[in-house]
UniProtKB/TrEMBL annotation:
Subcellular localization, as worded in the UniProt entry: Cytoplasm
This protein's record includes keyword Cytoplasm: yes
Name the UniProt record assigns to this protein: Triosephosphate isomerase
Assembly with partners or alone: Homodimer.
UniProt-recorded Gene Ontology molecular function terms: triose-phosphate isomerase activity
Main location: cytoplasm
Native organism: Candidatus Yonathbacteria bacterium RIFCSPHIGHO2_01_FULL_51_10
Keyword terms, alphabetized: Cytoplasm, Gluconeogenesis, Glycolysis, Isomerase
This protein's pathway: Carbohydrate biosynthesis; gluconeogenesis; Carbohydrate degradation; glycolysis; D-glyceraldehyde 3-phosphate from glycerone phosphate: step 1/1
Annotated PANTHER family: TRIOSEPHOSPHATE ISOMERASE
Family to which this protein belongs: Belongs to the triosephosphate isomerase family.
Length: 267
């Protein structure tokens, strides 16, 4: 049977209130319950985690958007991985480019990722270049980001890792454009090769690879089925239950007949 696609919602700093967060979450849970081909994770702002955990959805898991690496102590404003585990947070995003822009270095991303592993939570490691060049500098940049983030990580932890390829130029309101399927596919291969070199082929195959950056209901299917991605990391479109439901639905393969029809049309 086909492995389920992983669809992760990154709500960033939205919505503004609890009621709205609950409403969007309930709608997403309905869409998730209707899917047999997608695993859905919603990463809301920290403050909504307890109230959304209380809704006890079976179809949608919860994730966090960041974490601090220390176990406990005098770290004003920080949240530990153990606190997130206590709320049954299943995944934590580390190394998102918006956090890197606010000061997270490769070393901090590595410490966060290792703390997440110790807590038994799945890390969703974000990597991605800010510009592409013809010499392939973006390939080296992403490879180095992965190597730095995974320093000292055990193979047993790497097995449940999620790596999201999020080119910075494709993310958010100021995005130039989404990546093409070819660009996505190329980077999925680079990620797999880097993981094979760091660990081994079996580990690289076990890792879930996501694409993120201006994913919407129109391009989701293409990334999942033509770029060979194991899933998607969705920002803006994840706050619109209608769009996000359509993205979840795109995790279902098209019936064989329509593939045949499409091929015939192209002849
Ligand atoms: P976007 O954000 O889908 O709004 O481009 C993606 C992300 O930053 O994770």
């Amino acid at each position: 049977m086909q492995k389920k696609k992983l669809i992760v919602a990154n709500w960033k700093m939205a919505p503004a209130g609890t009621k709205e967060a609950q409403g969007i979450f309930r709608d997403i849970a309905k869409a998730g319950a209707g899917s047999r081909t997608a695993r859905v994770v919603v990463c809301p702002p920290f403050v909504f985690l307890p109230t959304l955990a209380a809704l006890r959805s079976k179809s949608v898991a919860l994730g966090a958007q960041d974490v601090f690496w220390e176990k406990d102590g005098a770290f004003t404003g920080e949240i530990s991985a153990a606190m997130l585990a206590d709320l049954r947070t299943q995944s934590v995003i580390v190394g998102h480019s918006e956090r890197r822009a606010l000061g997270d270095t490769d070393e901090m991303v590595n410490r966060k990722l290792r703390a997440v592993c110790v807590a038994g939570i799945t890390p969703v490691l974000c990597v991605g270049e800010s510009v592409r060049d013809h010499e392939g500098g973006h390939v080296i940049f992403v490879r180095d980001q992965i190597r730095a983030a995974l320093q000292g990580v055990k193979r047993s932890d790497a097995l449940r890792l999620v790596v999201a390829y999020e080119p910075i130029w494709a993310i958010g309101k100021n995005a130039v454009r989404p990546a093409t399927t070819e660009e996505g596919m190329e980077m999925a291969i680079v990620i797999k090769k880097t993981l094979t070199d760091l660990f081994d082929r079996a580990t690289a195959d076990a890792v879930t690879i996501l694409y993120g950056g201006s994913v919407d209901e129109k391009n989701a299917r293409e990334f999942l089925w033509n770029a060979g991605m194991d899933g998607l990391l969705v920002g803006r479109a994840s706050l619109s239950p209608k769009s996000f439901a359509a993205i979840i639905a795109s995790a279902a393969p098209l019936p064989k007949t329509s593939a045949v029809v499409k091929r015939r049309k192209h002849r």
